[in-house]
Amino acid sequence: MKRAVHAIALALLLTGCAMVPQNRRGKLADPMMQISDDPTETYRKQKVYTTREGAAGVDGAAAGGGCGCQ
């Protein structure tokens, strides 16, 4: 019984991922698919994040000045 439950759980986990062809990824990147309702607020938060993390060099990018200039 325990093995059957594990096998079913494993099967469900493996079927949860899907390969998306490159020519269809643009539709998934549509702004309508974003989680946030306010694109301006999302842009502002992303700008602050990239400025802070760019200054620290944490996210793998080269460390910048952190002044917010792009």
Describe the structure in your own words.
- This protein has 70 residues and is an all-alpha fold.
- The chain contains 3 helices and no strands.
- The protein starts with a helix and ends in a 14-residue tail after the last helix.
Which class best fits the helix and strand makeup?
A: mainly alpha
Helical content band: 40-55%
Number of DSSP helical runs: 3
In terms of quaternary structure, the protein is: single chain
Q: List unreliable stretches of 5+ residues.
A: none
Tell me the radius of gyration.
Answer: 20 Å
Largest sheet: none
Q: Strand content of the residues, in percent?
A: under 5%
Number of extended strands: 0
Give the overall pLDDT as a whole number. Answer: 74
Distance between the termini: 58 Å
Shape: elongated
H and E string = HHH
Give a quick rundown of the structure.
The protein has three helices and no strands. The chain is mostly helical and 70 residues long.
Highlighted features:
elongated, mainly alpha, 70 residues, single chain
Secondary structure blueprint with pairings:
Blueprint: H1 2-14, H2 22-28, H3 39-56
